[in-house]
Write a structure and sequence with these properties.
The protein has a two-stranded antiparallel sheet with strand order 1-2. It is globular. 60% of the residues lie in helices and 7% in strands. The protein is mostly helical and 165 residues long. The chain has helices at 5-29, 34-39, 49-68, 82-98, 125-150, 157-161; strands spanning 111-116, 119-124. Strand 1 and strand 2 form a beta hairpin.
């Protein structure tokens, strides 16, 4: 049995987003205020927690859609509360889990083109997933974890990893 692009992407995105949602719950349960978390940022030139969550969501749904050869759902970045951000996380997980594994067949060789103001980047599906999509996604998940932790959330490595499943 071979290891598929679907196996290397959808469950990975869904698990990390599930863990992120649980870490937000732990922060709130520990008494960290919503206002503190909504304004949290690691450095003045970095995005605050809400934007990190939105970008993690965009990274996951965009990667899944590109690899499956479909359009991702639109999710305007309008969340202003942690409850709304958790709803977005849940919607992203539902989308990631909604695509059938068969949609990913042949995606390792499918061309993926990302367009930026400075130009474009071209990848095969495999190179896109391993060299761009997963690192970009985990950058934002890691920053969100660091913001939660730095602001008093009682979380650790196993919260990030999600424990044994």
């Amino acid at each position: 049995m071979s290891f598929s692009i679907h196996q290397a992407s959808a469950p990975v995105f869904a698990r990390a987003l599930t863990n992120l949602s649980a870490m937000i719950d732990k922060a709130l349960a520990a008494g960290v205020t919503e206002a503190t978390l909504l304004e949290a940022r690691l450095a003045p030139d970095m995005h605050p927690l809400p934007r990190q969550i939105q970008m993690a969501s965009d990274s996951a749904k965009g990667a899944i859609a590109r690899l499956a050869g479909v359009e991702p759902p639109s999710m305007p970045d309008t969340e202003t509360t942690l409850a709304e951000l958790k709803e977005r996380i849940a919607a992203t997980i539902a989308y990631v889990n909604s695509l059938d594994a068969a949609a990913f067949e042949g995606s390792e060789d499918r061309e993926v083109v990302l367009k930026f103001p400075q130009g474009e980047m071209k990848f095969t599906g495999c190179d896109y997933l391993t060299g761009f999509a997963l690192p970009n996604f985990f950058f934002h998940i890691t920053i969100a974890y660091a913001l939660l932790r730095a602001n008093g959330a009682p979380i650790g490595k196993m919260d990030f990893l999600g424990g044994a499943r």
